[in-house]
């Protein structure tokens, strides 16, 4: 028990919480995007369940962080998946399209979207948290990570609810949030170990790939929206 009262332990806890707050901005956006189509009474449940599932998944990822990031083309696959999620979240939620789906199905659909998106987005982030935990000693790294992430849950939940309220008032945030996922996808693809020999080592290229991902999500989203309008009219 004494090991958990050391300065190194609490410094590491503070670092993990700070890292998760900084990285939680992306999570708050994707959680809010995924839950925006839910009835107001179910939004909070979607946020809480999605966040808890994402946190549990992140703990598992951290345990295998080094091995995961060393696998060639994993980030490439994750980036493509993140683009797809961004495009999907950019599509409007029409009441007619979901008239035959129960509220429970919609809720768990949002929760699954949150967990899948966090799985993809966490691949880049888990190393920072695992690195912060190393300062407290190897024997306590995983318990420390779990503790730090549990403390961060209310922070992410509160951030998601704020983003949801802003989305209701300013719909442009939905578009910007989806493009943010495309930006992250571009960065992930650029830093994939399997593509290292094929892409120039340059910040300019990294930003270009990120911008390309954001524009790709926007373009595909607008294209699918344009195709959906005639179908809705028919």
UniProtKB/TrEMBL annotation:
Q: Where in the cell is it found?
A: Membrane
Which spans are transmembrane here? 12-35, 47-67, 139-158, 170-190, 205-224
What are the UniProt keywords, alphabetically? Membrane, Transmembrane, Transmembrane helix
Q: Which GO terms describe its cellular component?
A: membrane
* Pfam families, per the entry: TerC
What InterPro entries is this protein classified in? Integral_membrane_TerC, Integral_membrane_YjbE
> Per the record's keyword annotation, is Kinase included, yes or no?
no
Output the PANTHER family linked to this UniProt entry.
MEMBRANE BOUND PREDICTED REDOX MODULATOR, SLL1022 PROTEIN
- State the family it belongs to: Belongs to the TerC family.
Q: Which NCBIfam families match?
A: R_switched_YjbE
- Return the protein name: TerC family protein
Task: Name the species this protein comes from.
Answer: Caenimonas sedimenti
């Amino acid at each position: 028990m004494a090991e958990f009262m050391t300065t190194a332990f609490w410094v590491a806890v503070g670092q993990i919480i700070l890292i998760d707050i900084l990285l939680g901005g992306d999570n708050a956006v994707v959680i809010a995007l995924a839950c925006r189509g839910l009835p107001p009474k179910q939004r909070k449940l979607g946020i809480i369940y999605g966040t808890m599932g994402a946190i549990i998944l992140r703990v598992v990822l951290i345990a295998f962080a080094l091995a995961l990031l060393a696998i060639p083309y994993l980030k490439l696959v994750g980036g493509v998946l993140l683009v797809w999620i961004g495009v999907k979240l950019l599509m409007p939620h029409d009441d007619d399209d979901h008239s035959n789906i129960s509220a429970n199905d919609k809720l768990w659909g949002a929760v699954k979207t949150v967990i899948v998106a966090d799985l993809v987005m966490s691949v880049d982030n888990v190393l920072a948290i695992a690195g912060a935990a190393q300062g407290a000693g190897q024997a306590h790294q995983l318990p420390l990570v779990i503790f730090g992430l549990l403390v961060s849950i209310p922070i992410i939940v509160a951030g998601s609810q704020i983003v949801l309220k802003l989305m209701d008032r300013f719909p442009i945030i939905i578009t910007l949030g989806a493009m943010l996922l495309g930006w992250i996808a571009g960065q992930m693809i650029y830093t994939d170990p399997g593509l290292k020999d094929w892409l120039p080592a340059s910040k300019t290229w990294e930003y270009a790939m990120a911008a390309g991902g954001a524009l790709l999500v926007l373009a595909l989203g607008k294209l699918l929206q344009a195709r959906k309008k005639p179908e809705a009219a028919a």
